[in-house]
Design brief:
alpha+beta, 5 strands
């Protein structure tokens, strides 16, 4: 999974605000993005969903946080960013 420009910008801004821009290890594996700091990991996943409504294909994005084995669906990217910010403030 490639980060969208807005996701990348928001993540970098949050890391900079927390003073951790050079201390976080960011990895991507099997569609999940993992941010690791001092043994703790924050992970999220974005999934594109296409549905057929009234004869038209509609694309939407779904976001998940947690782990690949226990994903928790969240409303949108802003909620992922809020959870990431809370994780960074620990």
């Amino acid at each position: 999974m490639r980060l969208l420009p807005t996701e990348h910008k928001d993540i970098m801004n949050l890391l900079k605000e927390a003073g951790l821009d050079n201390e976080i290890l960011l990895t991507k594996k099997t569609g999940w993005v993992h941010l690791k700091h001092k043994g703790e990991v924050f992970s999220f996943h974005r999934k594109k969903v296409t549905s057929l409504e009234s004869g038209r294909f509609i694309d939407s994005l779904e976001y998940y946080v947690g782990t690949p084995r226990k994903p928790e669906k969240v409303e949108n990217w802003l909620e992922v960013a809020e959870q990431l910010k809370a994780w960074l403030e620990k």
